[in-house]
């Protein structure tokens, strides 16, 4: 795996400057200020953690989707079903980071009142990085679990046609006073798609075992894997099984 280092043409940007950049770009695209603020704080923190594939790199796509009408910049979250500790909601293809953050905040409030809180939201756009929402709960003193499904990008174990998403899961666990929480965030494939895209853009190669080419052969060519959409699951049949279950829970 290639080290996550700054390339020669890269620039260091102060965190608060990056937050402001997110806000400026999003508000110029028509995203309301209160939504842009949440999107900016989460997106910039992802870059601060060094996961650049899910930070500012997604900003152009978000703006394009907002301007084309594929993503709603001011999500209207509607309650579909509600119980004391759980809520099922749907949104109108709401912008992902803001909608996901609001869902986790609602789950935290339910947990404070009832000991456990569960919120599911339908029709949400790309949420960025699941770590952000699990960590959001952990910083509030709660154990946080976050799951989502994705478009089909790898075949179920033992099959040929892509039918499962890499369906990430994230877990956040509070630590002691003054300590940062523990967070686990992982996709069900050997590597996140964004990481493979980054390596492809840099002209690099990936480890054998990350994916197959169009003929079903193991390859170290990231472009061939992206074209075939035949990523390989982590843990072979186990990762495939987890992705299937997450699809059932979130699809």
UniProtKB/TrEMBL annotation:
Pfam families: Ldh_2
Keyword Oxidoreductase in annotation: yes
Matches recorded under PANTHER family: MALATE DEHYDROGENASE (PTHR11091:SF0), OXIDOREDUCTASE-RELATED (PTHR11091)
Gene Ontology molecular function terms on file: oxidoreductase activity
Family designation: Belongs to the LDH2/MDH2 oxidoreductase family.
Entry superkingdom: Bacteria
Gene3D superfamilies in the record: 1.10.1530.10, Hypothetical oxidoreductase yiak, domain 2
Taxonomic source organism: Handelsmanbacteria sp. (strain RIFCSPLOWO2_12_FULL_64_10)
Keyword annotations of the record: Oxidoreductase
Name of this protein: Lactate dehydrogenase
